[in-house]
Amino acid sequence: MAKILKQRNIISLLILIAIVFPFLTKNEYFIHVMTLSFIWMIGVYGLNLLAGYTGYLSLAHAGFFAIGAYSLGILTVKAEMNFWLAFLLSLLITGILGFLIGLIALRTKEHFFAIYTLCVGYIIYLVIDKWDSLTEGVRGLIGIPAPGKAGPINFEEPLSQYYLVLFFLLVTVLIVYRIIHSLSGRTYIAIRNSEDLALTIGISTMKNKLSVFVLSTIFAGLSGALYASFIRFIGPDIGQISVTFDLLTYLLVGGIGTLSGPIVGTVLIVWLSQELQFLQDYRMLIFGPVLTLLVIFYPRGIVGALTGWKHKRDEKRKPQAARASSMAFGKSQVTVDKPVKEG
Amino acid sequence: MFLETKGLTKRFGGNTAVNNVDFTVEQGKINAIIGPNGAGKSTFFNLISGFHPPTSGQVIFKGQDVTKMPANKIAELGVARTFQTTNLFEQSTVLDNVIVGHRLRTKSTLFDAIFRTGRLKTEEAICREKAMEVIEFTGLMHVMGKQVGSLSQEEKKRTAFALALATDPEIVFLDEPAAGINPDETEGLAELIKQIAKKGITVCLIEHKMKMIMKLADKIMVLNYGEKIAEGTPEQIQNNPTVIKAYLGGSAIA
Amino acid sequence: MEIFVQQMFNGLTIGSVYALVALGLTLVYGILHIPNFAHGALYMMGGYITLTMMTNFGLHYWLAILVSILAVGLIGVLMERLVFHPLRHAPPIHDKIAAIGILLFLEAFAQYVWGADYQTMPSPYDQVVHLFGLTFTMQRLLIIVFAIAVMILLYVFLKKTFIGATIIAMSQDREGANLVGINTNRTAMLTFLISGGLASIACSLAAPINLVFPGMGQLVILKAFVIIILGGMGSIPGAILGGYILGFSESLGATYISNDYKDIIAFVLLVIILSVKPTGLFAKGGH
User: What residues of chain B, 66 to 125, have a C-beta less than 8 Å from chain A?
Assistant: First the structure.
C-alpha cells in the first residue's frame, strides 16, 4: 500500500512540476522546448503501447504523425475549416488509415512486421512529398492556425499553448495508465509474451492487436496535429523515417514497456540535445551507440533499470514483505482483500 | 461422442506427420496418447486445438465440427491446452500470469478500460477470483506473488495448468506435463491430474513417462509414424505385441 | 522499342547492384535470423571509403575498392562481435533496435567525417559506348559484368569450398551445424565479413553513376528488404532473382508509369506480397 501511495505521489509531483514550470522560468525558449517535448511524448506513448506492451515494433509511426499533422494543416489552410473540427477530423483520418493499414500489416509478425511498416512509412512520406497539389510537396504547408478559441480561452499565447499540450499529454497518460492496468492491458501483455499461448487461452489476437494499433496511430496523429498547430509550418520531412527513429530513441532510453519511460526518455534527450547544440546533426553519433548499448545492457531503459534495481534491493532486505507488496503492486486494490471462498 | 477425430491427416511437404487417425476422447476420463519420439503426438494436439489446419479429416467437439475453427474460438468452446515448454511470462507473478486466463469469458473492451466502467471492474474481480480459485486448486497459493522466472520447473508446470484451468474448460490437453521433472514431483502432478478429472474436466495427455501413464490413464492411444497402432486400457496396451514391437524397434522408452 | 531495350539495359545495371546488396542481407538473415537494418549504412560506408581512397590517397579505382571491401567487411565483423553476438538470446525486437542504433551512428559518423554534401565519384570508365544501337557508359557495362562475376565467385565459394559449405549448413540448421562441430562463431563472423564486402562492392560500382551522400543507403536497404522478401528470406538464388526483377520493374516503371513515383514500386510490390502471403514468398513453414 505504501508503495502505491509513493508511486502516486511521484506522479502527482511530476504533474505539479509541469504545471508550475512556466512560473519557474521567464525564458520563453524553455517553455517552447518543453511544449515540444510534451508533443513528442504523446507520440512516444503511442509507440510504447504497440511496441512496448504488445511487442510489435512499428517503424511507420512518423508516417502516422505526418498524417495527423497534414490532415490538420490541409483541413485548416486549404479547406479553411474550423480548427477544432479539423482537429477531431485529423484524429479520425489517422485512425481510419491506421485501421486499414493495421488490417494488413498485423497479418505479418516480428521481422516482417518491422519491414512492412518501414515500407509503409516510406510510402506515406513519398506520397506527401510528391502529391504537390494536395500537400504543396517540398515547399511545405505554411500558415497553419494556432488552436482556435475554446470558450474564453485563447491559444495564441505560448503559455496557453503549453497548458493545452500538457492537457492532452495528461489525457494520454491517463488513458495509457488505465489500459495497461485493465484486462485489455493484460491481454496485450499476454500477446507480447507468446501469441500461441494467448490464442490457446481464447484471446482473439488479431482483434486485440488491431485495436492497439489503431489507438497507437491515433496518439501519433494527435501528436502530429498538435505539432502542426504549434510550429505552424510543416514539410514532408516530418514523415521521414528518422522521426520514427527519434521517437524510438526516446522510448528506448526512458524504458520500453514502462509507464513513465516515454516521459523520462523524451525530457532527457530533448534537453540533452538542447545542451549539446553544437552537435546538432551529429547527435546520433552519441544516441546511436546509446540505443545499441541500452538494448544490450539495459533493455528496459532508465525506468526499467531503476525499478529492477529497486526490486532487487527490496527483495534482499525483506523477502516476505516485498513479495506481498509486489502482488498488490501493479493492480489496484480491487479484490485482493476479498477472502477466497472457493476450493 | 464428446470429442472425436475422423481420418485426421497432416502432411508437411512430403512428410506425413499424422495419418488418418480416428480417435475418441471419453468424457470425464483421463485419456493418454503415447508413442516414440516423432510419432506425431504434438502435431495431433496442434490439429485438435486449431493451431494447424489438417490436410484432411475432421475434429468434432460435442457434435460440432471445429476442424476449421481458429484456436481462440476452440478455446472459447471449452478446449484448453498446455505446451511442452510452458511459454509463461517469466517477469510477471504467478497471479498476474493466471488472471488473464479467464479473459475469454469476459466482454470488456478498450472502451471499458479507458472509461473504467462498472463492467470492467466487475469482470476484473471475476477474473481475479477465478485466478485465486485455480491457484488454490493447483497448490500454488504460497508462490502466487512470486515471479514465474524464479519458480521451479514443477511450479511452472502447475502455473501452466492453472492458466489452462482459468479458461473454464471442459477438456484439457496436456502436452508432456511431466517432462523435465523429478520422480517425486511427478507423483504430485499425477495427483493433480487426477483431481482435474475428478472435477469433471476431461483430460487428454501426451506423456513419455510410461509408469505414470499406466497408473493414471483410463484409456490410451498409441501413435507410431503418425498412425494409430493401438487403442485400449493400460492393460491391453501393455500386452499388445504391435506396441511392444514399435517401442523396442524404435527409440527407447523414456 | 529502342527505349524499351535501353531501359532493359538500365534495369540490368540497377538490378545487379540490388542483387549484390540483397545477397549480403539474405546471407546474414539466413545465418542469424537478423534483419540487419544497418546493412544500408555498410553500403554507404563502402562508397565513402572507396571515394576517400581515390581522392585523398590517390589509389586507383580497383585498389580503392579492395581497401573498401576489407574495411567494410571488418565493420561487419565488429558489428557481429560487439552487438549481435551478445544479443543472440534476446527477444527479436532487440536486435532490430540495436541494428537501427548502428545505422544511426554510421550515418551521423559519415556526415561528421565527410559532410552532408553530395559528392561524385570519378570513374576511369566514363567513356560512352555505342553498341547494337544502345548508348551507355563503360561504367554501366562494368557494373553488370563485375557484379555477375562476384555472384559466380560467391556461388563457387559457397558450393565448392569447405568454409562456404559451413555457411550453407549453418543457415539450414544452426543447432545441427553446432553438433557436427562447425564453429558457429567463426561462421557468423565470416558471413558478416562477406556481407559487408558485398555491400561495399555494390556501392563502389554504383557510386560513379549516382552520388555519394550520408543517406544514400536508406532507400537501397529498404529495397533490399523488399527483394529478400520477394525471393524468400535467406534464399541466395532468390536474392539475385529478386534483385533483377526489381531492377527491371523500376527502370520500366520510370519510363512508362512515372519517374516521380518509381521508388514507390518496390514498396507497393512488398505491400502486395505481404498482404497476400504474410510470411513472405517461399516461407519455410513455421514462423
Answer: 70-73, 75-76, 80-81, 83, 87-89, 92-93, 95-96, 99-101, 103-104, 106, 108-110, 112-114, 116, 120-121, 123-125
